[in-house]
Each structure stands twice: as structure tokens, then as C-alpha cells.
Amino acid sequence: MIDPGTLATPHQRARAADLLAPEEQRRWRRYRFARDRDLFLATRLLVRSVLANYTGVEARALRFSSNAHGKPSLVEGHSEVDVRFNLSNTRGLVVCAATMGREVGVDVEDIQEVPGLGAEYYLAPPELAELRAGSLADRRAEFYTFWTLKESFIKARGEGMSIGLSSFAVGIRPPRLLEYRDGAFHRSRWRLFAFAPTTHALALCIESREGERIEIVSRRTSAQELLDALRTCR
Ligand SMILES: CC(C)(COP(=O)(O)OP(=O)(O)OC[C@H]1O[C@@H](n2cnc3c(N)ncnc32)[C@H](O)[C@@H]1OP(=O)(O)O)[C@@H](O)C(=O)NCCC(=O)NCCS
């Protein structure tokens, strides 16, 4: 993960922009606001650095495609290792989660943001009950824990909002899938994790086998560190 604010100088931006494929360049230039341009660029710098590290392929040479719902993946043939990843970004934080041979979804939200609609709109009845059973002082942060866990599940599945927010429910104490109305996918197949870095809520959903131990390694870095590492890889 990185703070997009660490991508701050024209030199850093130029070096990060140099990694972009033509389509990414076009998308980058279309953003109206500098803050959104920088968030996009910081996200590309992070994902290309992380995946270059896993695959051994030069960051600039990585090519991406996406499924019908927009979930991005590496095009096949980059390396022997089956690296999957997912991205999320918000004000102040960009996260890239990478796994080997299993689906992953990640979501991060700034808990200082005021949600557009009430909790009833986003959460299923068991989630609302657990939220309301918690303390009032923690309600905003806990709401975003539900939100990011739900979103991470949706993103791991890769089917976008077609899944429907009320078609499944999660719990936060501990993070887990409670109900899922799709017989084809047993809930033990999806493991949920929640973190609270700084003023953000961050959640991960990882595909797994029942009882399997999952080790999560997290690293916070900066744009300059990523750019320096690219230089030493050349
Ligand atoms: C688009 C969506 C995948 C996430 O959107 P988001 O939360 O606004 O944005 P995030 O920063 O978390 O994620 C965006 C990234 O997810 C990835 N992504 C896009 N579509 C995806 C999909 N179908 N599945 C998984 N990942 C996807 C992309 O990498 C994208 O970034 P990029 O376009 O810069 O490459 C989708 O789930 C959505 O529209 N959510 C609506 C938000 C909402 O109401 N959530 C309610 C939660 S209770």
C-alpha cells in the first residue's frame, strides 16, 4: 500500500507515467482534477511494481486485460507463476493485494467520508443488527468495516454489483461470510480479513480451502521507494 501523496514531484510523476501503456496514458490524461490523476498514477505505479516483483517481468512490459465486469488481471504468458491481484484506492491510500493461484478482492475506504446513503441501503438485516449492537462511538468505523468486507467479496468474485448487496451478508466480529444465496459457492471458500490502517478501513477477501492457513504479509511503502526499486531492476 502507498499514500498517493508521496507521488508529489514532476520528476516522480514523469517516471511513473513512463510505465503506462498507451490506453492507461489516455485514461490518465482524461482525469480533470490533479488529485484524481495522481491517484490513478500512484495506483499504476504500485500495481506494476508489485507484479514485476512477483513475475520477474519488467514493470513497463506488463500487460493487463479485464473480465466483462471490469476486474483486471495480467494477460496470460507473462510468467510461470499464476499471480492474481486486485486494487483499491481512495483519498490517502492505494492498495494492491496479490495472491498465487487464488482469487482475491480488496477494498479500502476513508472512514472520514460521510456515506451517501443510510446504512439500511447498503447492509443486509443481519449486518444492520450487528452494527446497531456495537457502540455508537465506533459506528462510522464499523459501518466501513462492513462496507469494505462486502466490497472485497464482490471484488474477489469479480462479477461487480450484479451480485447484489442484499444477496449476501458478512459479520465483523470476526470478519466472515454469514450467508450467501448461491449454492455453487460454499461460504468456507471465501476468507475475509479486516484492517484499520490510519483513518481507513481495509478489507481482503481471499479464496481458500476449508481449514487452510493463510498468511498475509502487508507492506507500506512510498512512491519514491517504488521508483528507486524500479531503477535497480533495470
Ligand atoms: C467498481 C467496483 C469494483 C469498485 O469500485 P470502488 O469501490 O468505487 O473502487 P475501488 O478503488 O475499490 O476499486 C477500483 C478498482 O477495482 C478494480 N475493479 C474494477 N472492476 C472490478 C470488478 N468487477 N471486480 C473486481 N475488481 C474490479 C479495478 O482495478 C479498479 O481500479 P482501476 O479501474 O483503476 O484499475 C464495484 O464494486 C462498485 O461499483 N462498487 C460500488 C460501491 C458500493 O456501492 N459499494 C457498496 C459496499 S456495501
Short characterization:
With 234 residues, the chain is of the alpha+beta class.
| CATH top level class name of the largest domain | Alpha Beta
> Count the strands?
9
Structural class: alpha+beta
Unreliable parts: none
Distance between the termini: 23 Å
CATH superfamily of the largest domain: 4'-phosphopantetheinyl transferase domain
Question: Strand count, sense and closure of the main sheet?
Answer: 3 strands, antiparallel
How large is the count of helical segments?
7
The radius of gyration is: 18 Å
Bound ligands = coenzyme A
CATH architecture of the largest domain: Alpha-Beta Complex
Stated plainly, the CATH topology of the largest domain is called Ribosomal Protein L22, Chain A
Question: Quick one: overall form?
Answer: globular
Number of domains: 2
Instruction: Report strand %.
Output: 15-25%
What's the order of the H and E elements?
Answer: HHHEEEEEHHHEEEEH
The pLDDT mean sits at 92
Helix proportion of residues, in percent? 25-40%
Strand order across the largest sheet:
5-9-8
